[in-house]
């Protein structure tokens, strides 16, 4: 891939993860301490950040480097960013008594989602007694 292709792929991926996580350029600037103009150049495909900045963005979004820098345009995007979260959410979705958790499960970490699922199961069991 050419440098221009890398810039375009990074920009597209960054915008996707910002949208998925409900984040704006202003959020990234404020929460990560990046320069406003610099973030704008990344989002608009003018420049690509150094690897240390990419790593910070990856930690922020809970993704890997390849999620930001590879050309994934042809790959089918999945709703969940984490496979384990996806599996837990599917269990919740298939249980009608737990559907109230479904909408909020998309952005949760697997650990937090498991804790909610276990709580709901215990609550459900206690109501049976």
Task: Describe this structure as you would to a colleague.
The mean pLDDT is 82. The chain is mostly helical and 129 residues long. Helix 6 runs parallel beside helix 7. It has two domains: 67 residues, 434 Repressor (Amino-terminal Domain); 46 residues, no CATH class. The termini are far apart. It is elongated. The relative contact order is 0.11. The longest helix has 19 residues. It is built from seven helices and no strands.
Tags for this model:
434 Repressor (Amino-terminal Domain); mainly alpha; 129 residues; 7 helices
List the helices and strands and how they pair.
Blueprint: H1 3-20, H2 25-32, H3 36-43, H4 51-61, H5 65-69, H6 83-94, H7 110-128
Helix pairs in contact: 2-3, 6-7
Mean pLDDT: 82
CATH class of the largest domain: Mainly Alpha
* Morphology: elongated
Unreliable stretches, pLDDT < 50, 5 or more residues?
A: none
How can the largest sheet be summarized?
A: none
CATH architecture of the largest domain: Orthogonal Bundle
Helix content: 55-70%
Put the structure in a nutshell.
With 129 residues, the protein is an all-alpha fold. 63% of the residues lie in helices and 0% in strands.
